[in-house]
Amino acid sequence: TAYYNNYDEQVCLPQRQLKMNPPRTKAKAAFVILVRNKEQEDIAETIVNLEDKFNKNFRYPYVFLNNEPFTEEFKHAMQRASPGADMQFGLVPVQHWGYPSFVNQSYAKDCRDQMEADQVFYGGMESYHHMCRYQSGFFFRHPLLDKYDYYWRVEPGVKFFCDITYDPFLYMQKYGKKYGFVVTLLELRDTIPTLWETVLQYARSRHINVDKPGQLFPYFRDESTGDYNLCHFWSNFEIASLDLWRSPQYRDFFNYLDSTGKFFYERWGDAPVHSIAAGLFLDTNEIHYFEDIGYQHDLYRHCPSKESGLGCRCECPEGTTKDSIDHDQNWDTCLPRWRQWVKKSEADRK
Ligand code: GDP
Ligand code: MN
């Protein structure tokens, strides 16, 4: 019947029906969760929620990653959160977490102190720098991910509000999408003072034309100044192709960025790094806005609007509440720009 192998985002099947006829075909895909032992409770809650809204019907495996060994208690708590789910617990290899030899660690410390004094968000927190570098350049090299083509990044404490009764991975595969997001917003400029100029230098040195027809790159550029407009995709939610990051081009790009040491001397986030790389290497039509997925990370929430007709049995808070904000209406959303950009690139293709 029609709902096998489902990749149609418009579909909203009754849970009962999915349960009786679970999807038979799956993508080679997994949830990827970088997490600390002490975040056990929050990630357990997220898994219960994600299973309920989606994965109890689709049964994708979980890959947990940590720079320290997971405790037995943590592993048991995860299995309790979703009994029967396929779960792998991986240790991040030391070469992927820690200072590369070319980084001056005492200078990095001075930079952190300065960022702390300047109140750069997370700038003074050493582990955060390592995390951002890991998520930028290494997670996709973890051997536990070798057998997968796509991943869905999940973080402790995030919430899903709608039933997802189709398979987002199969959607990506079917339509040739390489990167999917739910929130697009402005980055904090003082975390990445020289990222953009480094990217432009890189593009020049590799003779990359950043203005090929269809290319995503100009979405990130302020046309009046040529500078970064600070828009990016929020990387705490990502459904994306692993091959995108495994590609020689992306590794070369990451190595170039990494060689500046500015994951440590500044506080380059994996979100702008992933986004701008997608800009360099992907076309706009390879990006998918998962507008139908109701989602919250920290205070920011996206829920499908009534007008869109998207979303399946969403249980979303509305407007601003004491613990969440409708980010699509927030001052720092890039969604209007994104919509315009997509319209323009679709018109250009015709
Ligand atoms: P935020 O979303 O930018 O506020 O940062 P988070 O604290 O949520 O960190 C982003 C992701 O990396 C989350 O999944 C965290 O669990 C994970 N993470 C952050 N720092 C570390 C760390 O030092 N070790 C491990 N294993 N995970 C970390
Ligand atoms: Mn987070």
Could you characterize the architecture of this molecule?
- This protein is an alpha/beta fold and 350 residues long.
- The chain has one domain (15-349): Alpha-Beta Complex (Spore Coat Polysaccharide Biosynthesis Protein SpsA, Chain A), CATH 3.90.550.10.
- 36% of the residues lie in helices and 13% in strands.
- The chain is built from twelve helices and 13 strands.
- The chain has helices at 15-20, 40-58, 72-81, 105-117, 126-137, 168-175, 195-205, 242-246, 248-259, 262-265, 270-281, 335-349, and strands at residues 29-34, 62-66, 87-91, 150-153, 159-160, 179-181, 184-186, 231-233, 238-241, 287-289, 295-297, 300-302, 325-326.
- The strands form three sheets. A seven-stranded mixed sheet has the order 3-2-1-4-9-6-10. It has a four-stranded mixed sheet with strand order 5-11-12-13. Strands 7-8 form a two-stranded antiparallel ribbon.
- β2 (62-66), α3 and β3 (87-91) form a beta-alpha-beta unit.
- The longest helix is centred in the N-terminal third of the chain and has 19 residues, at 40-58.
- The protein starts with 14 loop residues before the first helix and ends with a helix.
- The mean pLDDT is 96.
- Bound molecules: guanosine-5'-diphosphate and manganese (II) ion.
- Belongs to the glycosyltransferase 15 family.
- It comes from Phascolomyces articulosus.
- GO terms for molecular function: alpha-1,2-mannosyltransferase activity.
- This is Nucleotide-diphospho-sugar transferase.
- The active site is at residue 238.
